[in-house]
Amino acid sequence: MFVDLAGETGSVQIGYELAFILKTMKKSTKLLAVVVTIAAALLFAIDFSGYRTLGSDHSDTPNLIAVPRHDARITDLYAFQDGDDLVLALCVDPTIPAGVSEYIFQPDVIYDINIDNSSAVNHNDPDANETLGGTVTRPEKIKSNIVFRVTFNDGTPRLRVRGIKKGADSAQVFAGLRDDPFIRGPRIGRNVAAIVIKIPMSKVLGDQPELLIWAYSRVPEIDKPEADHGGMALRSQFPENMPMNEMEPRHHKRRMGLEPDVIIYNTSFSAIFPNGRQLTDDVVDLVEDPRVLSNDFPFPAVNDVPFLSEFPYLAPPQLP
């Protein structure tokens, strides 16, 4: 059962953004929600022939490209800890032209960030630890114990939470235009639409330190449970792994013989890719796949603009 955290809104002007204070329906506890509402992004031509790798997860959804529903295309997913809080950042829509200063999230798209806090993870295989953050012991048993669902009404985010009995109203949510945090040459100077959720780690941990984290997007045009899948960086966008995007992680091993495409985050240790994923992780250099390294010019090692030290962490959008 989902707990609906959206209620009446009030707003104040903050630079290029509108800040909304969302009240819960049951309590007076206030949630911070910063929303950039504005004009839809223009489409522009991209060569997707051969599914050329343009970014972390930027070019793996031919169905969404054909529709087109670029706003449902997941580009990146991050999971890290700030103090006692878990931070989840989901980026979408790689087609926002450089210099665009306004963005509207459409009301018919659903974004889910899923957490499995009960599946056992084996850390005995050094190779798996180095490449995937570990090995899920029973991949066919992966399930969404917790779901953060974000939808939009006139650009205003509505956060609903399933699987947290108490304290879901302590979550913070941001949705809006931000600088693309993916550290890669072709994304320098570009923006994405971002959703950031912050919640006390104690609300999501089960009886173990490991979390499995992945995201879905859904739109009416795609008659499937999910239109796009976002898990570990630099996995599902490659041609050999693209079918991962159209099935749940619990099916990846049985149907494709591949380890499930999820972020494995052992919260006993600091997040650094592939154990979780910090904004500052240069996954292109860490993964060292030549298909991505070959066109990473000018080979950045850090983001082109500094990240923020506080919520919502992603750098403000690059504006004209």
Structure description:
- The protein has helices at residues 62-66, 126-132, 249-256, 283-287, 290-293, and strands at residues 2-4, 9-14, 17-23, 30-35, 74-82, 85-92, 110-116, 121-122, 135-136, 146-153, 156-162, 172-179, 191-200, 210-218, 228-230, 263-266.
- By secondary structure, it is mostly beta strands.
- The chain has one domain.
- A hairpin with a 6-residue loop joins β3 (17-23) and β4 (30-35).
- The chain is globular and about 50 Å long.
- The model is unreliable at 7-55 (pLDDT under 50).
Largest sheet: 7 strands, antiparallel
Q: How many separate structural domains? A: 1
* Relative strand content: 25-35%
Strand tally is: 16
Helix content: under 10%
Low-confidence stretches: 7-55
Mean pLDDT across all amino acids: 83
Pairing-aware structural class of the strands and helices?
A: mainly beta
Please give the oligomerization state of what you see: single chain
Layout of helices and strands, plus pairs?
Blueprint: E1 2-4, E2 9-14, E3 17-23, E4 30-35, H1 62-66, E5 74-82, E6 85-92, E7 110-116, E8 121-122, H2 126-132, E9 135-136, E10 146-153, E11 156-162, E12 172-179, E13 191-200, E14 210-218, E15 228-230, H3 249-256, E16 263-266, H4 283-287, H5 290-293
Parallel strand pairs: 4-12
Antiparallel strand pairs: 1-11, 2-3, 3-4, 5-6, 6-13, 7-10, 7-14, 8-9, 10-11, 12-13, 14-15, 14-16
